[in-house]
Amino acid sequence: MTALSINLNKVSLLRNSREGNYPDILSHAQLCIDNGADGITVHPRPDQRHIRPSDVRILGELIRSLAGVEFNIEGNPFAPAVADYPGFLPLVTEIQPDQCTLVPDGDDQLTSDHGFDLFQSGKALAPIIARLKSQGMRVSLFMDPDAEQIKQAALIGADRIELYTGPFAAAWGTESADDLFNQHKQAAILATKLGMGVNAGHDLNLHNLVKFATIPNLLEVSIGHAFIVDSLTMGMASAVQTYKKRLNNHQ
To answer: Is 202 one of the catalytic residues?
Structure first.
């Protein structure tokens, strides 16, 4: 079965629009877990536009106490310390999540919008991957469905790749969607042959997920934005249950 990890960044984004702690991210994480989420994902950025280091710490405490639930922290491994943001690598070293997903995003990006170019950054990433793995974390790299790049991910020691599905989602309903789906399928097959696990994420939703979930050996999807939007109309508990059904029953 493919695991569903819920990205809660947008809950924190809503909270940060006011003083105080409403909505409370911890209670919403618990609600997702109680209704079948296999994991929780957060993406702390130096500008703290949504998830804050304090959120990461309390979520880490919650998930460590639960069997069978994984904590995935994603972000730019080169993000430095800024004010009370300790830097990405010091933060994940402190929290020790089950999975650390490295993403090549910058503060000027609205959201993650491309995978790593490992011909440019692979040399710098290799020792980071080794260090995180030595601390007991599974390491995933955010990647485009490019065969040569995926080969590089295996060479520098990644445990998994997370396929960037933004272009596939944007093309949904057009003639190019099938071609993009096939690119992701072939990328997943290659990654598996090279000994890496396959995750996926970005703009997957209740419509395109049914198709994407047929990707062979898909271990995990991380879904945030669309999930929160659906929660507004369906309720969060129902949204988790519906995503789980679509993901693993493909209907």
So the answer is: yes
